[in-house]
Batch of 4 targets.
Target 1
Amino acid sequence: MAVLYDPNRDIVGTSLLALETVGHASFNNRSLELEFYRKFFESIVTEQTDVNEGLVAEAMLVSKATDAHGIDALHIAAAVKLGAHEFITSEKATKPMFRETRLKVRHLDDL
């Protein structure tokens, strides 16, 4: 969880992030993941971008280039739009989002 308090790191996202992450982690009783999301949403997010047609168009490009599906492509497109250098996820490293080359995609457990 040190990544959350790194003074040299800004954390960015979209309004879809909580929708996708919290419910799934809660349903599956993933306490470590839920703790991460709780801290993340309470005080860590420094900038968000709206989900709009422009972001959807960028997500389509991500999907075409990586085979990332729907919401994953939206998250990657938002991170790129906001100038992120790194994308941290709980998705398996075998997911298509890890093919993105404009930023480094890392698994939460690898931090």
Target 2
Amino acid sequence: MNKPTIIISSILILSAGALFFVFNRKFRKETATAPDEMKVGDTIIPLGNNVNIRSTPNVETGNYIYPNYVGTVGTYLSSELGKDNYVWYKVKLDKPTAKNTEGFVRIDVVKKL
């Protein structure tokens, strides 16, 4: 190989490696951890327009307390690691039901008010 071919090949290899690293970092599922800034009693709200509030800290059919809930979720009680390796906030619900005064929301869909 001549020198320009080696340089171009090296650049292409480095570029492909950099793209793989960026793509892998962006889409790799990482284990979440509870943010240090959460304190018992903090108010939790959805990041977007709504959030699913669940009876257990995992995504399962039938464990909804409130699907597509809009408004203040409740107050932070604790954090738990779910079966899905996401951290879930246990909250005291602002609008309790006859069966549930507490529920769970995944940390990547809510924020502290």
Target 3
Amino acid sequence: MLTLLLILGAIVLARRPSEVVKKTTDERQRLTTRRESPFSELVTLEQTGRKIEDPNLAQRRNLLVTKLEGVYQELAALDEQRAL
């Protein structure tokens, strides 16, 4: 009987409120959407850079990589929160 109560208590206490799950899911979707634009720009830039040499491409590439790093850091922090 005690074992059953402990198992049920663990299940009840381990569940997260649906608001929290929805909020983190929405935030993850927002970050994923935010990541797509700079990523596609970076792919296009890399393809263009192979065809022509332009010193501005390196600067633009660094800017896009920095943006992507920020988004990936936010995604990692969100995943870390979800794991707790």
Target 4
Amino acid sequence: MDEDRFNMSVRKFLKHVGVTSQREIERVVREGRVDGSALKVRMTLTAENAPLEHVIEGEIEIGPHEQSSPGESPSLDPVEADILRVIGHGQKSS
């Protein structure tokens, strides 16, 4: 086995999993489809051609749903503002 090639292939797969999973998590949160203040998640890794089943469970805190008045932007901490800017909402942190 070529360790370097294997390592790069694993990293590429995990990067793809991470990026696409984050997009889906952000989508359901943005759409307001989460009941409560935390998203209960489970990731299951399986393989078709190997005896692999690995489950990871956890919670992603999203905080309470805040309502803002029309025309008023909800207050965001700098990290939240940067995340929104990166995913295309155009708000900048101060």
